[in-house]
Amino acid sequence: MTPPADPLSPDAPLPNPLPRPEGEVEKLKEIWKTPFGWRFPTVVNNNWIGVLYVGTALLFFVLAGILALVMRLQLAVPGNAILDHETYNQFFTTHGTIMMFLFAVPAMEAMGVYLLPAMLAARDLPFPRLSAYAYWAYLIGGLFFFGSLFFGLAPNTGWYMYPPLTSKPYSPGINADFWLLGIGFIEISAIAGAIEIIVGILRNRAPGMTLARMPLFCWAMLVFAAMIVFAFPAIIWATILLELERAFDWPFFLPDRGGDPLLWQHLFWFFGHPEVYIIFLPAAGMVSMIIPTMARTPLVGYGLVAMALVATGFLSFGLWVHHMYTTGIPQLSLSFFSSASFAVTVPTGVQVFAWLATLAVGRRVTLNVPTLYMLGFLFIFVLGGLTGVMVAVVPFDWQAHDTYFIVAHLHYVLIGGMVFPLLGALYYWAPTAGRKLSDRLGRWSFWLLFGGINLTFFPMHLSGLRGMPRRVYTYPSGMGLEWPNLISSIGAFVAAVGVACVVVDLLRNFRMETGGGGGGNPWSAGTLEWLPNDTYAARSIPRVHGREPLWENPRLTEEVEQGRHFLPGTVTGRRETIVTSPVAAVPQYVQVIPGPSWAHVVAAAGTAGLFTMLTIQLVWLALAFGALAVLATLWWLWTGTDYGPLRDDAEIGGGLRVPVYLAGPDSTAWWAMIVLLLVDGTVFACLLFTHGFLWLVNPEGWPPPGTPLPHAVWPLFSAMGYTGSAVLLWLADRALGHGRAGVILPAVLLALPLLLLGFGADLWGYWSAGLRPTTHSFASSVYANLFWQGLHAAIVFVMALYLAARRLAGMVDPVRRVTFDCVRLFWLYAATQGLAGLVLTHLVPHALR
Amino acid sequence: MEVRGFAPIKAAVAGMVVWAVHFGIVYGITGIACERGYGTRILLGQPLIPALVLAATALALLFVGWIVVSAYRRLDSELSGEDGEDGPQFTVWLTLAIALLSALAILWEGIPVLLVHPCA
Known about the structure:
By secondary structure, chain A is mainly α. Chain A has 25 helices and four strands. Helices cover 64% and strands 2% of the residues of chain A. In chain A, helix 3 packs parallel to helix 6 (184-203), helix 6 (184-203) runs antiparallel to helix 7 (216-248) and helix 7 (216-248) runs antiparallel to helix 8 (261-295). Chain B has a two-stranded antiparallel ribbon. The model of chain B is unreliable at 80-85 (pLDDT under 50).
């Protein structure tokens, strides 16, 4: 019988025959060896980085939880004096900030970094050093941020940092800067992780794992990462504006000079509300994996749940003003956000019903620890969701705004929607690393947490309705607040014992058995993360024909272990991962990926150092750290990317020959750069919004009468510089396409001064005309645009020199051109953004006059 | 078999992109008109803001309707394929489901203009 031509077809023979060549596995083990001892920080394997990441997130969870306990002690009785009001302010701000930025988002990214490669059956995600960089920057910067509390320097204005309270006159110390700059590294870290996750999910799935067969956790992580790409830029831009105002007196939020504090609220909540869903969606993805396993049946309504995840990702961006109902925004505008708040309940409801239906149709649901946490999640999250619908009703929100009712609501949503699924997930997936956690401790932790959480937060609805405002360090007696607060405080300690049980269980029972093949498949789950794992992931990359491959083919584990599926060894002698097409998951090429290195660790330390030294105003030290970060990143790129074609092509099994190097739109580097540019473009969209918003609140004129403006010759020069630079890059690309690598160096060396000229001419035009950024929000907005464009010019400067050096070293040619492509994409974006900035700051105000 | 094709993913989210654009437009119209005192203006015999919001809503629904119809047609023809879980069919189904939910969300965004005074 003639085998079918398509090696991915279920009827085709297994991709690789037996017996396997001698030494194949040993070679894999050698290549993927984990560095130990003093070289351990150089590790890049996703399983180690993932576990470190989860552990660090849990550490911050415990630290922020301890702050909460002290606050609950303070509030246990009226007029208590354990904390003074200033320390209390620092405690609740640090608690909220750590829980949101240092626990919830990193914990979910961590679970993604740990689980995704195994779930997709990839050897690793495409940029392992990027994940490791994200982790180290997070660890170093996060510990520094928490440390500020011990010096009385922690931020003290609430986790959403509203100006004018955070403006210099009302927050003169450096506490607010700790937030603004301290959170900077987390934004970078989150975006780095998001790029890795998006490209990994879309391009590193096992052959045959079409989008329709992708585990729902992967769908959830894809939406999660895409949301980070579009939400985090708003907070990046907002923090830049507020820091520029605080450091240099640029009045974006000061009404006496044309600013408006509401601008901050818009930008903050455009990030802040999606953030809630950024946290919730991966948790929902975990639930959609755990419930079918425990119910021993595929999830009911897979397609509807995938639809719900995508729709929630979008709709959650239409909710930001629902935190601003009391700011005087027109009623109709509020109604739009109210409608969106109701609309988002539809996909959430779809998921809840899918989970319930799966439990209903399942064969004898096992009531073990993960299942208990899933049931607890459903109960607490649905209660939080219902109060969410209540506060989406505008008149009710006017009453409940900034009261303990909101504190109760948000904790029900976040603890129910994120913490319970995460803890359930720890119990569920722990065996993939080593062995199961303790069933006894797990049950104790669940019941203590379930009881404690309800005991803590349910009475807060009542204290809120009785008028207790949030963020007060004490309250008077005789207002009916004593009992609800005392019960809440008792509940908090009960929940803390529950958390302690989890910590003890993890310390006693969690083990990384690298090379040991994990703890088997104790729940009899159907997805690929339950294949035997080693440092190199699965022995061979399975061919996938359905959503639960291990249920559909009971022999799959054995086949994979025997090396009968794709890429059972190495084709280049280095770390490799198969890159597949985004929808149909057809193998496209084998990507060589980098191994352990100090480069990204030093880059992470430099990044964290840059932000933290800026916070404590050691500017020269900050610059030194910044330079260190740049140099280390260049070292990382030089040694860990764009290896070129180590050989022409290679057979990975089933007669499938694929290249081992690919440049252009199909390469993962190209995809990563596109995602980065989406982040960048979203920041620029926030910049446009800033100009538009400030124009709207300045009816006397934009620019105000009497503002000095530059002569038209400067923007014209600038436009010529940007355009010329872009044209040269385009010509160089064409020439390279025709095999003429010699044009790269002259093109780059000519295009770079043109781009710098474009930026310099615009800057000089405004400065020489006498416009100063401190005078009015128009001027500060113009200089904010120049600041952002200047940053891009500086990045292009470094990139251009790097590209030139690579070319001189013979590492860029018509075939080996990934570096050139990435630089070109960023450069063209920077030039286009420069031109758009000229239109925004010169033509638009002129047209509006 | 399709190898590259990112297009099905873009098509799948098309309905929600229309929702997002519609949301931005109706919020922008209301915000600008109220801030600049155009809340009581009349356009073609109708109050300005409700007229613009309803027009934007109708246009958005038309767009989504087009996405739904074209997806439905493709789904119909491709359902005869052998493998029910094949990628292209699933993404077409996803396009349809997301577009229908988007239509509901757009409709909900448009309804308040009939009930609430724009700049109160």
